[in-house]
Amino acid sequence: MYLDSAATSQKPRQVLETLLDYYERHNANVHRSPHLLGEEATQMYEEARARAARFIGAPDASCVVFNRGTTESLNLVAHGWARKFLREGDEILISELEHHSNIVPWQLAAQATGAKVRYIPITDDGLFDMAALPSVLTERTKLVSISGMSNVLGTIPPVRALADAAHASRALLCVDGAQLVAHAPVDVAELDCDFLAFSGHKMLGPMASGGLYARRELLEDMDPFLGGGEMISQVLPDHSTWNEVPWKFEAGTMNVADEIGLHAAIDYLDEIGMENVRAHEESLAAYAIQGLTDAGAQLFGPTDVLERGAEVSFWFKDIHPHDLATILDQEGVAIRAGHHCAQILMRRLNVPATARASFYVYNDRADVDALVESLGRAAQLFGS
Amino acid sequence: MALEDLYKEVILDHYKNPRNKRPLPEAALTCSRNNPLCGDEITVFADVDGGTVTELTFQGQGCSISQSSASMLTEAVKGKSVQDAERLASDFRGMMAGEVEPDEDEFGDLVALKGVVKYPIRIKCAVLAWDVLQEALSGAGEAAASAPHS
Question: Does any domain span residue A5?
């Protein structure tokens, strides 16, 4: 039973076959090689971009930069936008439940510019404390960057309300979509976000696929992040000029096969329907919360499944999550244990770590039953 | 491999009833470390007199493997010379690498941690306290070297 999809998802055969087909029949470098294979690879790569753009409601394929995923995308915004435009005294507003990839890039950008990182508090239930928003979102705030779905608690914040509040303060909104894009229908126009980072490997796609959506004019204004081949227009002895967006941000040889594999993953998800993915996971989350609670586990995060995804963090009796994960693994149940790259949240919850079961399209109620049953084995072994 | 080989009774006993688990604010040597991968934390407090570890306590939080290893460590090392403590630390690492067959007299309860070898991802839990001890004891040499000669 694989209950660790929040870390990375398993990949369907269609994705694996797409990778194999690409390498067997179409492999070449893109945007460079004037031969048939080069044309095929370029076409498939750009079709993948257009497909990803459609999947998230982006108006144009040029608004999607491919890279290794959410972490690289947030770093791209931190370098290309934040370091260029932030000044001393400006503020970047994030929340207490963020993944380290949505904290550390801003800390680095703040150090480089003299800006400051501030936090939206969360409630004991793991919800955004929206009542506290006016005290932290000020005229100094230039960027609000928040998770669209917490990898630890499943929390789905009111993204549109945060976008409206940010824009009313003339700040931009950046969404860490690592979980959200994999587990719920996403439309950047509806969310009205300015940036959206996403990871292909969490949504049935290959490792190191994914990218960044940004409004076209923001991409135009941003500085490049990595310099090198393909991202330039002209290279002169003392300076260079940049390629058009999005290629300005795609230096060197990209993960061409992986982005084409992501295309297959998106097709797979759309065939199921993201509304159905979300409904399936709401149902599984409710079933898991009930089952774990009945078994005596202490749960973290929102209790209303409409406000959360199927990332379910818990403590079981007084058994440390690492011990629990080892025991459950021997019972054939794979869960994650640790701080989940969210040390600030762990401190807020006043725990050193949590156990986390996370669910996806291939999980069902039998997996939850196996999880709950295996807890009995842990209790027996630890005599608790 | 049976879970009982990993979670031996003696390990769970040290976890639930840790020995020498208390802060020693006046200790000459204090060293803390956490495992950034999992968040386990260990602080070791040690007094060294005439090259012998005369007092040794710990504080910390984490899984049963990291905390029982720290508890067993305090029992095994207290009263030993710094040199012997270093040798035991090296032997313990050897046991975790599957290269050293533990001497039961020297290891005491620590023998129980041998089963961790079969769970590679948990070896870092067992070794954390020993990393902290060795860092603390390396301070013993420095403290002695930098102490004013009378």
Answer: no
User: Out of A63, A174, A193, A341, which one is annotated catalytic?
Assistant: A341
Q: Which residues of A285-321 are buried (b: 16+ CB within 10 A; e: fewer)?
A: bbbbbebbeebebebbbbeebebbbbbbbbbbeebbb
- Distance from chain centroid for Cα A219: 20
Q: Do A30 and A104 reside in the same domain of the chain? A: yes
Number of structural domains in chain A: 2
Would A2 be classed as within a structural domain?
no
A1 inside domain: no
B122 touches chain A (CB under 8 A): yes
Place of tokens 């049976």: B2
- The residues that bridge with A298 in the sheet, in sequence order, are A315
CA distance A277 to A284: 11
- Asked whether this complex has an ipTM greater than 0.95, the answer is no
| Residues B63, A321: C-beta atoms closer than 8 Å | yes
Rounded to two decimals, what is the model's pTM? 0.93
| Shared-domain flag, residues A285 and A205 | no
The range of the structural domain enclosing residue A77 comes to: 13-271
Regarding whether A230 and A282 lie in a shared domain, the answer is: no
pLDDT in tens, B52-90: 999 999 999 999 999 999 999 999 999 999 999 999 999
Residue B150 lies in a domain: no
B42 near B35, Cβ under 8 Å? no
